[in-house]
Design brief:
The protein contains ten helices and nine strands. The protein has 290 residues and is an alpha/beta fold.
Length: 290
């Protein structure tokens, strides 16, 4: 049976990671679970040490999500690696099903399952197109909401795709990102310039550029308590208690990620006028969110 490494990056989620680990452990026979604790101050590390001795715990200062993922990646020994949010809960047959699919489809490098919110709705951030200038424009002007099934106006969430059948997508989020180890062997580790957002967009883009397929596989499911692990959903009773400085940094990181991705991957692909408009738009959005 192929070995699976599950990597969770934790920051002050003692209240939810216990439920996550209780759900996760035992879902797949040949599995190692690695938790990277990014300097939590809520007793997360002590909880894991005392209750989950079978979990590999890596304790670090908070250098961001990408850095945490890389710490886990260095320890991982599996043929496949699942990056999982501490607020994500795969169903019973999901991990086994994903491994089996990858074994039969060697050109697939990354995949996600049907990631569902507690409302039962699909987490659309797990079913994304790359943020080209046009895709971003239609998303931020909300044109995609008026034309949810349009291939022209909803490239951001790929709304024209049938979400009930497996199909290729551009990217998924790291709250459930199933990756073939060979992908990292080829393209390298996570880009640590991204603190908390954009890291998954970047890794998927690099994987696609290297020729790997990225799949959405709705035959398997996971529940996602969206926003809990990063402390940004105030309506959630499970929310992580995040200090004001960290919240401010995370808001800034969302637009920083846009700027980093565009200048890294798109700066030479579009005319200077388009680039100027895009970067000005990012700067404007940054000021709104600060």
């Amino acid at each position: 049976m192929p070995k699976l490494s599950v990597i969770l990056v934790n920051y002050n989620t003692a209240h939810i990671i216990e439920r996550c680990l209780n759900n996760l452990l035992g879902l797949y026979e040949n599995m190692e679970v690695i938790v990277v604790d990014n300097g939590s101050m809520d007793g997360s590390g002590d909880l894991i040490k005392s209750k989950y001795p079978q979990v590999i715990l890596i304790e670090s200062t908070n250098k961001g999500l990408s850095a945490g993922s890389n710490f886990g990646l260095e320890k991982a020994t599996g043929d496949y690696i699942l990056f999982l949010g501490t607020d994500a809960f795969p169903e019973e047959r999901t991990l086994e099903g994903m491994v089996g699919y990858f074994e039969k489809n060697p050109t697939v490098g990354i995949a996600t399952c049907k990631l569902l919110l507690r409302t039962g709705e699909l987490d659309m951030d797990a079913h994304r197109g790359f943020p080209t200038p046009w895709a971003a424009l239609t998303h931020f002007t909300r044109l995609n909401r008026f034309f949810p099934k349009s291939k022209i106006f909803n490239q951001y969430f790929l709304g024209y795709q049938d979400i009930n059948v497996p199909h290729e997508i551009d990217l998924c989020i790291s709250h459930f990102m199933f990756v073939r180890k060979k992908v990292f062997d080829q393209i390298g580790k996570w880009d640590e310039d991204y603190f908390v957002y954009g890291d998954d967009v970047d890794i998927c883009y690099r994987a696609k550029q290297a020729g790997w397929k990225i799949m959405y596989l709705p035959q398997w499911k996971a529940l996602h308590y969206k926003g809990v692990s990063v402390g940004i959903r105030s309506e959630s009773k499970d929310i992580t208690k995040t200090d004001p400085a960290t919240k401010k940094r995370m808001k800034r990181s969302s637009t920083d990620a846009m700027r980093i991705f565009y200048t890294k991957h798109y700066i030479g692909k579009y005319p200077k006028l388009v680039t100027s408009i895009v970067l000005s738009g990012i700067e404007f959005l940054s000021k709104i969110r600060s």
